[in-house]
Design goal:
422 residues, Growth Hormone, Chain: A, mainly alpha
Length: 422
């Protein structure tokens, strides 16, 4: 057995930091959204657009970040994108108008996009099967802490230090990621600039989208995890405008969402010692369905803190059961194009949140959008998992374990992006 160049724990910690940069940048910002309407003397729709543009940059840039890391290496692309993130964070801090803030948030999203694509590619470079699922679970546990604390931190910083302090904190986080990439992260692919072939990349993405296992697993992730990003567009205005919470109270209330996800991730880690990750997806989707039904009742009864957040917490609880197995399943057939596969998975996941958030903005009523669109996302996740189960081959007779399938080589030399593994 060849020992991977980074341990499971190191990959988990680095992966969690890279994944967290996007959600943390979103969660720190949400308590300030109502305040920024007043600061820039603008409309609620304009401030919502700053979040939508962030989602747009985050989702679309992943399609480039992952393949770039396949061709040029994981470390240099991480550093380059995070440098852009830091510059955009400084620009947001100094924004004189809401239009400048919109541009800065869009660039922030582009910079943060490398995190989710490269973290998953790192895991796929070195590990597969249940080892990969364990790492994805541990990433989820660590990841839950950042978004759990970020709204609370943002809500407390806002009245004391002002909205600019939130973007200064994002700048510091960006420099921390760069430091980790320079001194703790090992390169897991051999750079080959000749792989920057956009026609080949197009063929790779076509192969991904025509692969039933990838597409069904990615839609499960898009419907389940994508709902968290869509909810970020609705919840600040529901809880602060409809329910009447202050920014600090709103930040504290988001602990119900992230705390539920964190608790479930710990439980999943224990259960994975007895059951395979695949067997946990079904129970997780039961919680997603229950959370969807609870959210749907917002059409029937007026919102209160518990009426809004209990279904949100239930939905988040289920996501922790879904994420490890579905992330692994989506990337498994494409080890030689892990960056491209992780990018497309992230695009579907974030893109679903962007699409639903934009549809909610068009509706013009955050409560109506939350009550109708989030249950639709839960339904997409459940139906996609039924399709995924249907296309899976029947298990074959047990064969001797191939240890090479669970431990990556010291340095993976990728083949062209256009040639995904069969």
């Amino acid at each position: 057995m060849t020992t991977p160049i980074m341990s499971e724990r190191r990959v988990s910690l680095i992966g969690a930091l890279l994944v967290a940069i996007g959600p943390v940048s979103m969660a720190l910002y949400t308590p300030a959204m109502t305040e920024l309407v007043r600061v820039f003397d603008t409309t609620e729709s304009a401030i919502k657009l700053t979040l939508t543009l962030y989602f747009g940059g985050f989702a679309c840039a992943q399609l480039i970040a992952g393949p770039l890391s396949d061709a040029l290496g994981r470390r240099p692309i991480t550093i380059a994108f995070m440098a852009l993130y830091c510059v955009a964070s400084v620009a947001a801090t100094l924004s004189p108008t809401v239009e400048v803030l919109m541009g800065a948030r869009f660039l922030q999203g582009i910079g943060a996009s490398a995190g989710i694509a490269i973290s998953r590619a790192l895991v796929r470079d070195l590990f597969t099967d249940d080892r990969s699922s364990r790492i994805m679970n541990l990433i989820g546990i660590i990841l839950a802490l950042g978004p759990a604390l970020a709204p609370t931190i943002g809500g407390l910083m806002l009245p004391v230090f002002g909205w600019q302090s939130i973007f200064l904190l994002m700048t510091v986080i960006g420099f921390l990621v760069i430091w980790v990439a320079l001194f703790s992260m090992k390169e897991t692919v051999t750079a080959d600039p000749s792989r920057l072939n956009f026609k080949a990349l197009g063929r790779t993405y076509k192969a991904l989208l025509s692969n039933p296992q990838f597409l069904s697993a990615a839609l499960v992730m898009g419907g389940a995890l994508g709902a968290l990003y869509a909810q970020a567009t609705f919840l600040p205005f529901i809880l602060m405008d409809e329910v009447g919470l202050t920014p600090a109270q709103f930040g504290a209330s988001m602990l119900a969402q992230s705390g539920s996800f964190f608790t479930a991730s710990l439980l999943v880690r224990q259960l994975m010692g007895r059951f395979s990750a695949d067997r946990l997806v079904g129970p997780g989707l039961v919680f997603v369905a229950l959370g969807s039904l609870g959210t749907l009742t917002l059409l029937l009864w007026p919102p209160s803190f518990l009426h809004v957040m209990v279904p949100v917490a239930t939905y988040s609880f289920g996501i922790a059961f879904v994420m490890p197995a579905m992330s692994t399943a989506a990337l498994a057939p494409f080890g030689r194009a892990a960056g491209a596969a992780a990018s497309m998975l992230g695009f579907i996941q974030m893109g679903s949140g962007l699409l639903v958030g934009s549809l909610g903005a068009l509706l013009g009523n955050a409560l109506l959008a939350m009550a109708t669109l989030i249950p639709m996302m839960g339904a997409v996740a459940c139906v996609s998992f039924l399709v995924y189960r249907k296309i899976q081959p029947r298990p074959a007779a047990a064969a001797p374990a191939d240890t090479r399938a669970t431990c990556g080589p010291k340095v993976t030399a990728p083949s062209p992006v256009s040639a995904p593994e069969k």
